[in-house]
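question for whoever is on the cluster today: can someone run the full assembly for these? two chains, 538 residues total. i dont have access anymore since they changed the login thing
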Amino acid sequence: MTAGRVFVTGLGVVSAVGPDTASFWDACLRGDTRVEPIPEHWALYYAAASRVWSPLPMAAVEGRFRRTDRLTLDRIVLLAIHAADEAVRSAGLAIESAAPGDERHRIGGIAPQRAAVYVGTGFGGAQAAFDNHLTHLLAPVRAALAQAPADAAAAPLLADLQRALAAHPRVHPFVICQSMPNACAAHLGIRFGFKGLNDTACFACASGTVAIGRAFHALRNGRHDVCIAGGVEHLDDHAGSVFMGFDRLRTLARPANPPGTENRPFDAARSGFLFSEGGAGFLVLESERHAARRGARPIAEIVGFGATSDATSIVAIAEDDNTLDAMLAATLDDAGVAAECIGYVNAHGTATPLNDALEAAFIARALPHRPVVNSTKAILGHTIGACGALEATVAVLSLRDQRVHGMPNLAEPVGDLDYARTAREVSIEYALSQNFGFGGHNAALLFKRLP
Amino acid sequence: MTHQDILDRVRAVVSEVLGIEPGQLTPATRLGPEFNVDSMQLVTLMIALDEEFDLELDAEGFSNPEITLDGIAEAIGGLLASAGRGE
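^ ran it for u. tokens below:
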């Protein structure tokens, strides 16, 4: 089958600044952020250098699910379904509601074997594993915990462990189904009856980017008609284990004055990334023929995907290597587009000292025609496996509306790039969204405006 | 809480979780053979009842497809009584 064009026909989002695409995009353009102190009880387990995170509107998400879903699916799966539902509906695909008690919703007008799911996630079901492991350890000593002598120093910790056990008194019967990394992709396939490839991309902070890229290539090659593709992350285990892990690596934003300004991508005073509770972004990607046949309205075209590996460090981005240049070259070659056509770069822009310095230098070197640059992490902080998909969503919306969002705390920029400090009107044909993940994964997507 | 009160709540939860009309459910209804309820669904029912009554039901009982609403209500009544939360 010949290579065909691939369109974005639907979008769905859950983010700290809004539980759907419209509220998320409005918040981006307004420069709204959500920065709050980390849960107090996390301090019982570890004295972290970072004191803030960006929590999700979980009540709004969990509240729309049936009790059966809430009780059997881990919260990361609820996030994935919430965002994917919106993407599918916004694409105009007809969701036939399920029977009561049945997880499965069918979609009319598609060939199930030609419909695929591509999910990127950094940690997958790790949170379910952490929380169930805590119950696994504590349940046998439940009585001893309740009668533990009140050592003044240990009392608050023991009380917190009792609270954790009360909230999760039994190891979940479906702990394996919840903690396996492919849980989100599998549940999206089950929910929508997509029987083609069900793929989980695990590329740390580039997971969502790679998931979308893989779906795009498979669609272009004629393997599928339609895909749900994106990224999801949820990092709120009881003891804040993942937060602590990133803090130990010294990657998280340090306290700043005034409080609330800790998150500073591409700013001279940046100190690390704002830890996000997570989020989800899903796109419906569709072959041109399939979209035309059912009268779908494409939002943008996806035209390029390229990925490389540093093969240098498990954490640090390679300093004197050409893997980012090779990533960009592969993406442009994939699209058959020249570098100077790129009008907008949605940068990885984590706000770690090393990433932003190297990324700014890379953009200046590779794209000297000065495209407008921003980082959506200035709004959301870092959503790890979801960020590539949320940022791809921003690239698509920026092309659609010919507007880019600003970066609220950018005061003294790194390098001489055309940063969008505040939201502005733009005239752009192509938008690049790039992400770099722990493990040395570099990936980029190129989107094109549709008239 | 009387046995009948417990039974009524169990019937409501069974109906919600398994999608069975309450009118089709009697105390003697055997969920496995009569409604094709599988082991995954029985475990899901168990955790929903855990939440409904704020207790921890014995997983062993829910591995038997012959389980009845009356049997479930009896097990719940027993746990509530031993926790001092009975009638």
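summary bc i know u wont read the tokens: Chain B has a mean pLDDT of 93. DSSP finds four helices and no strands in chain B.
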